[in-house]
Prior knowledge:
The complex is a heterodimer.
Chain A: E1 10-15, H1 20-28, E2 38-42, H2 51-57, E3 63-66, E4 77-80, E5 86-89, E6 95-98, H3 110-121, E7 125-129, H4 138-146, E8 150-154, H5 163-170, E9 176-178, H6 180-191
Parallel strand pairs in A: 1-2, 1-7, 2-4, 3-4, 7-8, 8-9
Antiparallel strand pairs in A: 5-6
Helix pairs in contact in A: 3-4, 4-5
Chain B: H1 7-21, H2 30-43, H3 49-58, H4 60-70, H5 81-95, E1 101-106, H6 112-123, E2 130-136, H7 139-147, E3 149-151, H8 155-164, E4 175-178, E5 181-184, H9 186-189, E6 192-196, E7 208-213, H10 222-235, E8 236-244, E9 259-261, E10 267-270
Helix pairs in contact in B: 1-3, 3-4
Amino acid sequence: MAENAISKQCVVIGGSAGGLPGIIYILEQLCPDFPTPIVIVLHRRNDRDSTLTALLSHKTTLLVKEAEDKDVITPGIVYLAPADYHLLIEKNYSFSLDHSEKVQFSRPSIDVTMQTAAEAYGSGLITILLSGANADGTAGLEATRHNGGISIVQDPAEAFAPFMPQSAIDQLVTDHTMNMAGIVTLLYRLLVGPVTHQ
Amino acid sequence: MEAAVSDQQINLLLTDLLYVYGYDFTAYAKASLKRRINRLYTLDHFPSFAEFRYRIRSDENYFNRFIEQLTVNVTEMFRDPLFYQALKTQIFPVLATYPFIRIWHAGCSTGEEVYSTAILLKEANLLHKSILYATDINAEVVKKAAAGIFPIHQMQQNSENYQLAGGREEFSQYYIAGYDHVLFNEILKKRMVFSTHNLVSESSFNQFQLILCRNVLIYFEKDLQGRVFALFDESLDKLGYLALGSKETLKMSPMVSRFRQVDTEKIWRKMQ
Lengths: 198, 272
Protein backbone atom coordinates (compact mmCIF):
# COMPACT_ATOMS: atom_id res chain seq x y z
CA MET A 1 0.00 0.00 0.00
CA ALA A 2 2.85 2.39 0.79
CA GLU A 3 4.27 1.54 -2.62
CA ASN A 4 1.16 2.75 -4.34
CA ALA A 5 0.33 5.79 -2.28
CA ILE A 6 -1.40 7.78 -5.00
CA SER A 7 -5.09 7.13 -5.44
CA LYS A 8 -6.83 7.64 -8.76
CA GLN A 9 -10.05 8.08 -6.87
CA CYS A 10 -11.08 10.84 -4.54
CA VAL A 11 -14.11 12.01 -2.58
CA VAL A 12 -14.71 15.76 -2.27
CA ILE A 13 -17.33 16.94 0.23
CA GLY A 14 -18.64 20.51 0.17
CA GLY A 15 -20.76 22.14 2.83
CA SER A 16 -21.75 25.53 4.15
CA ALA A 17 -24.32 26.60 6.74
CA GLY A 18 -25.44 23.44 8.54
CA GLY A 19 -22.93 21.30 6.65
CA LEU A 20 -20.77 20.35 9.61
CA PRO A 21 -23.10 17.70 11.14
CA GLY A 22 -23.23 15.92 7.78
CA ILE A 23 -19.45 15.94 7.52
CA ILE A 24 -19.15 14.54 11.03
CA TYR A 25 -21.75 11.87 10.23
CA ILE A 26 -19.71 10.69 7.23
CA LEU A 27 -16.38 10.77 9.05
CA GLU A 28 -17.75 8.75 11.96
CA GLN A 29 -18.59 5.92 9.61
CA LEU A 30 -15.39 5.70 7.61
CA CYS A 31 -13.44 2.50 8.22
CA PRO A 32 -9.71 2.79 9.07
CA ASP A 33 -8.76 1.37 5.66
CA PHE A 34 -11.10 3.57 3.64
CA PRO A 35 -9.49 3.38 0.20
CA THR A 36 -9.61 6.95 -1.10
CA PRO A 37 -8.54 10.35 0.12
CA ILE A 38 -11.33 12.65 1.36
CA VAL A 39 -11.20 16.37 0.73
CA ILE A 40 -13.53 18.63 2.71
CA VAL A 41 -14.39 22.18 1.73
CA LEU A 42 -16.45 23.83 4.43
CA HIS A 43 -17.28 27.52 4.35
CA ARG A 44 -16.20 29.02 7.62
CA ARG A 45 -15.05 32.11 9.36
CA ASN A 46 -11.67 33.39 8.32
CA ASP A 47 -9.55 32.61 11.33
CA ARG A 48 -6.40 30.73 11.87
CA ASP A 49 -7.18 28.49 14.77
CA SER A 50 -7.21 24.79 14.13
CA THR A 51 -10.29 23.92 16.18
CA LEU A 52 -12.09 22.47 13.18
CA THR A 53 -9.21 20.10 12.39
CA ALA A 54 -9.12 19.05 16.04
CA LEU A 55 -12.87 18.61 16.18
CA LEU A 56 -12.98 16.42 13.08
CA SER A 57 -9.96 14.41 14.25
CA HIS A 58 -12.03 13.14 17.14
CA LYS A 59 -14.69 11.82 14.80
CA THR A 60 -12.62 9.38 12.76
CA THR A 61 -9.73 6.96 12.98
CA LEU A 62 -8.32 8.45 9.78
CA LEU A 63 -5.74 11.21 9.89
CA VAL A 64 -7.36 14.65 9.56
CA LYS A 65 -5.16 17.51 8.46
CA GLU A 66 -5.39 20.88 6.82
CA ALA A 67 -4.39 20.59 3.15
CA GLU A 68 -1.00 22.17 2.49
CA ASP A 69 0.35 23.64 -0.70
CA LYS A 70 1.99 20.89 -2.86
CA ASP A 71 0.87 18.02 -0.59
CA VAL A 72 0.49 14.81 -2.57
CA ILE A 73 -3.09 13.63 -2.03
CA THR A 74 -2.89 10.32 -0.19
CA PRO A 75 -5.50 7.70 0.74
CA GLY A 76 -6.18 7.34 4.44
CA ILE A 77 -6.09 11.07 4.95
CA VAL A 78 -8.98 13.48 5.38
CA TYR A 79 -7.91 16.89 4.08
CA LEU A 80 -9.56 20.10 5.14
CA ALA A 81 -9.42 23.20 2.92
CA PRO A 82 -7.71 26.01 4.86
CA ALA A 83 -9.70 29.15 5.67
CA ASP A 84 -9.39 32.07 3.26
CA TYR A 85 -7.65 30.19 0.42
CA HIS A 86 -9.04 28.33 -2.56
CA LEU A 87 -7.89 24.72 -2.60
CA LEU A 88 -7.05 23.44 -6.07
CA ILE A 89 -6.14 19.94 -7.21
CA GLU A 90 -3.43 19.49 -9.81
CA LYS A 91 -3.33 16.73 -12.39
CA ASN A 92 -0.43 15.10 -10.57
CA TYR A 93 -2.80 14.61 -7.61
CA SER A 94 -1.29 17.31 -5.44
CA PHE A 95 -2.82 20.42 -3.90
CA SER A 96 -2.12 23.99 -4.72
CA LEU A 97 -3.47 27.01 -2.90
CA ASP A 98 -4.77 30.18 -4.46
CA HIS A 99 -5.75 33.47 -2.87
CA SER A 100 -7.65 34.91 -5.83
CA GLU A 101 -11.08 36.54 -5.76
CA LYS A 102 -13.90 34.91 -3.83
CA VAL A 103 -16.20 32.67 -5.87
CA GLN A 104 -19.90 32.69 -4.93
CA PHE A 105 -18.86 34.98 -2.06
CA SER A 106 -16.69 32.18 -0.73
CA ARG A 107 -13.03 31.41 -0.21
CA PRO A 108 -12.48 28.49 -0.09
CA SER A 109 -14.96 27.88 -2.88
CA ILE A 110 -16.49 24.42 -3.22
CA ASP A 111 -16.79 24.95 -6.99
CA VAL A 112 -13.08 25.62 -7.41
CA THR A 113 -11.98 22.49 -5.57
CA MET A 114 -14.55 20.28 -7.30
CA GLN A 115 -13.86 21.68 -10.78
CA THR A 116 -10.13 21.11 -10.51
CA ALA A 117 -10.69 17.71 -8.87
CA ALA A 118 -12.96 16.75 -11.78
CA GLU A 119 -10.19 17.51 -14.26
CA ALA A 120 -7.63 15.59 -12.24
CA TYR A 121 -9.64 12.52 -11.24
CA GLY A 122 -12.21 12.27 -14.06
CA SER A 123 -14.39 9.21 -13.51
CA GLY A 124 -12.54 8.52 -10.25
CA LEU A 125 -14.19 11.47 -8.52
CA ILE A 126 -17.19 11.41 -6.22
CA THR A 127 -18.49 14.80 -5.09
CA ILE A 128 -20.96 15.29 -2.25
CA LEU A 129 -22.79 18.55 -1.62
CA LEU A 130 -24.36 19.09 1.79
CA SER A 131 -26.41 21.74 3.52
CA GLY A 132 -25.75 25.38 2.71
CA ALA A 133 -27.33 28.74 2.00
CA ASN A 134 -25.72 29.73 -1.28
CA ALA A 135 -25.18 28.29 -4.75
CA ASP A 136 -21.54 27.28 -4.35
CA GLY A 137 -20.97 23.66 -5.40
CA THR A 138 -23.46 23.49 -8.26
CA ALA A 139 -20.81 24.22 -10.90
CA GLY A 140 -18.54 21.75 -9.11
CA LEU A 141 -21.09 18.96 -9.41
CA GLU A 142 -21.63 19.85 -13.06
CA ALA A 143 -17.89 19.56 -13.72
CA THR A 144 -17.84 16.25 -11.85
CA ARG A 145 -20.46 14.76 -14.15
CA HIS A 146 -18.98 16.31 -17.26
CA ASN A 147 -15.71 14.53 -16.54
CA GLY A 148 -17.35 11.19 -15.80
CA GLY A 149 -17.49 11.32 -12.00
CA ILE A 150 -20.46 10.84 -9.70
CA SER A 151 -22.26 13.70 -7.95
CA ILE A 152 -24.36 13.30 -4.83
CA VAL A 153 -26.43 15.84 -2.90
CA GLN A 154 -27.92 15.69 0.53
CA ASP A 155 -31.71 15.54 0.42
CA PRO A 156 -32.78 19.20 0.88
CA ALA A 157 -35.61 18.00 3.12
CA GLU A 158 -32.98 16.76 5.57
CA ALA A 159 -30.57 19.67 5.19
CA PHE A 160 -30.48 22.47 7.76
CA ALA A 161 -30.14 24.94 4.87
CA PRO A 162 -31.67 23.38 1.73
CA PHE A 163 -30.67 26.13 -0.73
CA MET A 164 -27.30 24.68 -1.73
CA PRO A 165 -28.38 21.10 -2.50
CA GLN A 166 -31.60 22.39 -4.06
CA SER A 167 -29.62 24.66 -6.37
CA ALA A 168 -27.73 21.65 -7.71
CA ILE A 169 -30.95 19.67 -8.13
CA ASP A 170 -32.58 22.57 -10.00
CA GLN A 171 -29.64 22.71 -12.39
CA LEU A 172 -29.94 18.96 -13.06
CA VAL A 173 -26.32 18.24 -12.13
CA THR A 174 -26.90 15.51 -9.56
CA ASP A 175 -26.67 11.75 -9.95
CA HIS A 176 -28.06 10.94 -6.51
CA THR A 177 -30.16 12.79 -3.94
CA MET A 178 -30.14 11.00 -0.61
CA ASN A 179 -30.21 11.39 3.14
CA MET A 180 -26.94 11.10 5.06
CA ALA A 181 -27.37 7.39 5.78
CA GLY A 182 -27.96 6.75 2.08
CA ILE A 183 -24.86 8.77 1.13
CA VAL A 184 -22.63 6.69 3.40
CA THR A 185 -24.10 3.42 2.11
CA LEU A 186 -23.55 4.57 -1.46
CA LEU A 187 -19.95 5.59 -0.74
CA TYR A 188 -19.23 2.11 0.60
CA ARG A 189 -20.97 0.44 -2.33
CA LEU A 190 -18.98 2.51 -4.84
CA LEU A 191 -15.58 2.41 -3.16
CA VAL A 192 -15.36 -0.47 -0.72
CA GLY A 193 -17.71 -3.15 -1.97
CA PRO A 194 -20.68 -4.89 -0.29
CA VAL A 195 -21.90 -3.02 2.75
CA THR A 196 -20.52 -4.51 5.94
CA HIS A 197 -20.22 -1.46 8.18
CA GLN A 198 -22.62 -1.02 11.07
CA MET B 1 -18.85 25.28 -16.56
CA GLU B 2 -16.85 23.56 -19.27
CA ALA B 3 -13.31 24.90 -19.57
CA ALA B 4 -13.09 26.87 -22.79
CA VAL B 5 -9.32 26.80 -23.13
CA SER B 6 -7.82 23.31 -22.98
CA ASP B 7 -4.56 22.19 -21.43
CA GLN B 8 -3.00 21.85 -24.85
CA GLN B 9 -4.04 25.36 -25.83
CA ILE B 10 -2.65 26.69 -22.57
CA ASN B 11 0.68 25.13 -23.44
CA LEU B 12 0.57 26.96 -26.77
CA LEU B 13 -0.06 30.26 -24.99
CA LEU B 14 2.76 29.66 -22.53
CA THR B 15 5.14 28.92 -25.40
CA ASP B 16 4.03 32.15 -27.14
CA LEU B 17 4.58 34.19 -23.99
CA LEU B 18 8.07 32.81 -23.70
CA TYR B 19 9.11 33.26 -27.33
CA VAL B 20 7.30 36.48 -28.17
CA TYR B 21 7.67 38.34 -24.88
CA GLY B 22 10.28 36.46 -22.87
CA TYR B 23 7.90 35.74 -19.97
CA ASP B 24 8.19 32.22 -18.60
CA PHE B 25 5.01 30.93 -16.95
CA THR B 26 5.71 27.27 -17.66
CA ALA B 27 6.61 26.52 -14.04
CA TYR B 28 3.51 28.14 -12.58
CA ALA B 29 1.04 25.82 -10.82
CA LYS B 30 -1.25 24.68 -13.62
CA ALA B 31 -4.67 24.46 -12.00
CA SER B 32 -4.63 28.07 -10.90
CA LEU B 33 -3.15 29.26 -14.20
CA LYS B 34 -5.89 27.47 -16.12
CA ARG B 35 -8.57 29.11 -14.02
CA ARG B 36 -7.09 32.56 -14.56
CA ILE B 37 -6.76 32.08 -18.31
CA ASN B 38 -10.29 30.76 -18.68
CA ARG B 39 -11.62 33.55 -16.53
CA LEU B 40 -10.06 36.16 -18.82
CA TYR B 41 -11.16 34.32 -21.96
CA THR B 42 -14.76 34.43 -20.74
CA LEU B 43 -14.51 37.97 -19.37
CA ASP B 44 -13.27 39.39 -22.66
CA HIS B 45 -15.77 37.43 -24.80
CA PHE B 46 -13.41 35.87 -27.28
CA PRO B 47 -15.26 33.97 -30.01
CA SER B 48 -12.46 31.44 -30.43
CA PHE B 49 -9.16 30.38 -28.99
CA ALA B 50 -7.41 31.36 -32.22
CA GLU B 51 -8.51 34.99 -31.80
CA PHE B 52 -7.48 34.97 -28.15
CA ARG B 53 -4.05 33.67 -29.02
CA TYR B 54 -3.60 36.09 -31.92
CA ARG B 55 -4.56 39.06 -29.76
CA ILE B 56 -2.06 38.14 -27.06
CA ARG B 57 0.70 37.58 -29.61
CA SER B 58 0.14 40.71 -31.66
CA ASP B 59 -1.24 43.36 -29.30
CA GLU B 60 1.20 44.40 -26.62
CA ASN B 61 -1.42 46.37 -24.70
CA TYR B 62 -3.57 43.30 -24.51
CA PHE B 63 -0.57 41.27 -23.50
CA ASN B 64 -0.14 43.62 -20.53
CA ARG B 65 -3.75 43.06 -19.55
CA PHE B 66 -3.20 39.34 -19.91
CA ILE B 67 -0.23 39.40 -17.53
CA GLU B 68 -2.15 41.54 -15.07
CA GLN B 69 -5.08 39.12 -15.10
CA LEU B 70 -2.92 36.03 -15.03
CA THR B 71 -1.28 36.99 -11.78
CA VAL B 72 -3.40 37.19 -8.66
CA ASN B 73 -3.49 40.70 -7.22
CA VAL B 74 -5.82 40.23 -4.30
CA THR B 75 -4.22 41.92 -1.31
CA GLU B 76 -4.99 44.18 1.61
CA MET B 77 -3.11 46.27 4.18
CA PHE B 78 -1.84 44.46 7.28
CA ARG B 79 -3.18 41.19 5.90
CA ASP B 80 -2.73 38.62 8.68
CA PRO B 81 -2.37 41.24 11.43
CA LEU B 82 -0.57 38.79 13.71
CA PHE B 83 2.19 38.51 11.13
CA TYR B 84 2.74 42.26 11.28
CA GLN B 85 2.67 42.13 15.04
CA ALA B 86 5.48 39.56 14.93
CA LEU B 87 7.38 41.75 12.47
CA LYS B 88 7.05 44.70 14.81
CA THR B 89 7.84 42.98 18.08
CA GLN B 90 10.41 40.40 17.02
CA ILE B 91 12.13 41.53 13.83
CA PHE B 92 12.21 45.32 14.02
CA PRO B 93 14.17 45.45 17.31
CA VAL B 94 16.93 43.48 15.57
CA LEU B 95 16.78 45.58 12.40
CA ALA B 96 17.05 48.67 14.61
CA THR B 97 20.65 47.76 15.37
CA TYR B 98 21.68 48.27 11.72
CA PRO B 99 22.78 51.72 10.57
CA PHE B 100 20.79 51.25 7.37
CA ILE B 101 17.93 48.83 6.68
CA ARG B 102 17.21 47.37 3.26
CA ILE B 103 13.90 45.57 2.76
CA TRP B 104 12.57 43.84 -0.36
CA HIS B 105 8.89 43.23 -0.98
CA ALA B 106 9.05 40.62 -3.76
CA GLY B 107 5.74 40.30 -5.60
CA CYS B 108 4.39 43.52 -4.10
CA SER B 109 1.24 43.61 -6.25
CA THR B 110 -0.60 46.93 -5.77
CA GLY B 111 1.58 47.83 -2.79
CA GLU B 112 -0.69 47.44 0.24
CA GLU B 113 1.87 45.37 2.13
CA VAL B 114 4.69 47.79 1.37
CA TYR B 115 2.73 50.70 2.84
CA SER B 116 1.86 48.52 5.85
CA THR B 117 5.51 47.79 6.54
CA ALA B 118 6.46 51.44 6.05
CA ILE B 119 3.84 52.57 8.56
CA LEU B 120 5.12 50.16 11.19
CA LEU B 121 8.71 51.20 10.48
CA LYS B 122 7.73 54.81 10.98
CA GLU B 123 6.09 54.04 14.31
CA ALA B 124 9.21 52.15 15.38
CA ASN B 125 11.21 55.23 14.42
CA LEU B 126 13.11 53.24 11.78
CA LEU B 127 11.64 54.53 8.54
CA HIS B 128 14.17 57.36 8.13
CA LYS B 129 17.00 54.84 7.86
CA SER B 130 15.14 52.22 5.84
CA ILE B 131 14.65 51.72 2.16
CA LEU B 132 11.88 49.48 0.84
CA TYR B 133 12.34 47.93 -2.59
CA ALA B 134 9.02 46.83 -4.01
CA THR B 135 8.93 44.70 -7.14
CA ASP B 136 6.40 42.76 -9.16
CA ILE B 137 6.38 40.98 -12.50
CA ASN B 138 3.49 43.15 -13.55
CA ALA B 139 4.23 46.74 -14.65
CA GLU B 140 0.61 47.86 -14.22
CA VAL B 141 0.38 46.95 -10.55
CA VAL B 142 3.81 48.44 -9.83
CA LYS B 143 2.53 51.72 -11.25
CA LYS B 144 -0.47 51.56 -8.92
CA ALA B 145 1.73 50.73 -5.96
CA ALA B 146 4.03 53.66 -6.69
CA ALA B 147 1.08 56.06 -6.92
CA GLY B 148 -0.01 55.13 -3.39
CA ILE B 149 -3.67 55.70 -4.21
CA PHE B 150 -6.18 53.21 -2.85
CA PRO B 151 -9.98 52.94 -2.84
CA ILE B 152 -11.46 54.62 0.20
CA HIS B 153 -13.91 51.77 0.86
CA GLN B 154 -10.99 49.54 1.86
CA MET B 155 -9.83 51.89 4.59
CA GLN B 156 -12.18 50.61 7.27
CA GLN B 157 -10.90 47.06 6.89
CA ASN B 158 -7.32 48.37 6.63
CA SER B 159 -7.78 50.40 9.79
CA GLU B 160 -9.14 47.37 11.67
CA ASN B 161 -6.21 45.26 10.51
CA TYR B 162 -3.85 48.04 11.54
CA GLN B 163 -5.23 48.06 15.07
CA LEU B 164 -5.03 44.26 15.28
CA ALA B 165 -1.43 44.43 14.08
CA GLY B 166 -0.61 46.60 17.07
CA GLY B 167 -0.76 49.99 15.37
CA ARG B 168 -1.00 52.71 18.00
CA GLU B 169 -1.80 55.86 16.06
CA GLU B 170 -4.82 57.17 14.24
CA PHE B 171 -4.68 55.25 10.96
CA SER B 172 -6.25 58.08 8.97
CA GLN B 173 -3.24 60.31 9.62
CA TYR B 174 -1.30 58.31 7.01
CA TYR B 175 -3.41 59.37 4.07
CA ILE B 176 -5.44 62.19 2.59
CA ALA B 177 -8.95 61.31 1.46
CA GLY B 178 -10.45 62.71 -1.72
CA TYR B 179 -13.71 61.54 -3.28
CA ASP B 180 -13.57 57.76 -3.40
CA HIS B 181 -9.81 57.30 -3.06
CA VAL B 182 -7.09 58.06 -0.56
CA LEU B 183 -3.53 59.15 -1.20
CA PHE B 184 -0.86 57.88 1.16
CA ASN B 185 1.66 60.33 2.62
CA GLU B 186 4.81 61.33 0.82
CA ILE B 187 6.84 60.58 3.93
CA LEU B 188 6.07 56.87 3.44
CA LYS B 189 6.57 56.86 -0.33
CA LYS B 190 9.88 58.71 -0.07
CA ARG B 191 11.49 55.58 1.36
CA MET B 192 10.19 53.23 -1.36
CA VAL B 193 11.73 52.20 -4.67
CA PHE B 194 9.41 50.55 -7.19
CA SER B 195 10.46 48.42 -10.12
CA THR B 196 9.37 45.46 -12.21
CA HIS B 197 11.25 42.28 -11.43
CA ASN B 198 10.51 38.75 -12.57
CA LEU B 199 11.34 36.17 -9.92
CA VAL B 200 11.37 33.46 -12.58
CA SER B 201 14.05 34.90 -14.83
CA GLU B 202 15.87 37.78 -13.15
CA SER B 203 18.70 37.63 -10.68
CA SER B 204 19.49 39.12 -7.33
CA PHE B 205 19.95 42.91 -7.40
CA ASN B 206 20.94 43.83 -3.85
CA GLN B 207 21.54 42.54 -0.32
CA PHE B 208 18.72 42.78 2.18
CA GLN B 209 18.12 42.34 5.90
CA LEU B 210 14.48 41.47 5.30
CA ILE B 211 12.73 39.94 2.30
CA LEU B 212 8.94 39.65 2.29
CA CYS B 213 7.36 37.41 -0.32
CA ARG B 214 3.87 36.53 0.82
CA ASN B 215 1.36 34.50 -1.15
CA VAL B 216 3.47 34.48 -4.28
CA LEU B 217 5.15 31.09 -4.07
CA ILE B 218 1.84 29.20 -3.86
CA TYR B 219 1.40 29.99 -7.57
CA PHE B 220 4.68 28.28 -8.48
CA GLU B 221 5.45 24.61 -8.97
CA LYS B 222 7.86 23.02 -6.53
CA ASP B 223 11.01 23.31 -8.69
CA LEU B 224 10.42 26.98 -9.30
CA GLN B 225 9.78 27.53 -5.61
CA GLY B 226 13.22 26.04 -5.00
CA ARG B 227 14.85 28.36 -7.53
CA VAL B 228 13.20 31.40 -5.98
CA PHE B 229 14.32 30.33 -2.50
CA ALA B 230 17.88 30.18 -3.84
CA LEU B 231 17.45 33.70 -5.22
CA PHE B 232 16.28 34.92 -1.82
CA ASP B 233 19.14 33.13 -0.10
CA GLU B 234 21.58 34.91 -2.39
CA SER B 235 19.88 38.25 -1.74
CA LEU B 236 19.81 37.97 2.06
CA ASP B 237 22.52 39.18 4.38
CA LYS B 238 23.69 36.69 6.92
CA LEU B 239 21.23 36.91 9.85
CA GLY B 240 18.66 38.44 7.50
CA TYR B 241 15.01 37.45 7.58
CA LEU B 242 12.70 35.85 5.03
CA ALA B 243 8.94 36.28 5.53
CA LEU B 244 6.45 34.08 3.66
CA GLY B 245 2.66 33.84 3.44
CA SER B 246 0.68 32.02 6.13
CA LYS B 247 0.42 28.85 4.01
CA GLU B 248 3.95 28.88 2.61
CA THR B 249 6.98 27.19 4.08
CA LEU B 250 10.69 26.80 3.68
CA LYS B 251 10.61 23.36 5.23
CA MET B 252 10.62 21.43 1.91
CA SER B 253 13.70 23.27 0.69
CA PRO B 254 17.22 21.94 1.32
CA MET B 255 18.05 25.48 2.41
CA VAL B 256 16.02 25.07 5.56
CA SER B 257 18.98 23.62 7.45
CA ARG B 258 20.72 26.98 7.25
CA PHE B 259 17.65 28.90 8.38
CA ARG B 260 15.86 28.99 11.68
CA GLN B 261 12.16 29.69 12.03
CA VAL B 262 11.78 32.71 14.26
CA ASP B 263 8.22 32.52 15.38
CA THR B 264 4.98 30.69 14.85
CA GLU B 265 4.51 33.15 12.00
CA LYS B 266 6.21 32.24 8.72
CA ILE B 267 9.47 34.10 9.31
CA TRP B 268 12.88 32.47 8.91
CA ARG B 269 16.32 33.81 9.79
CA LYS B 270 19.37 32.99 7.73
CA MET B 271 21.91 31.60 10.20
CA GLN B 272 24.84 30.90 7.87
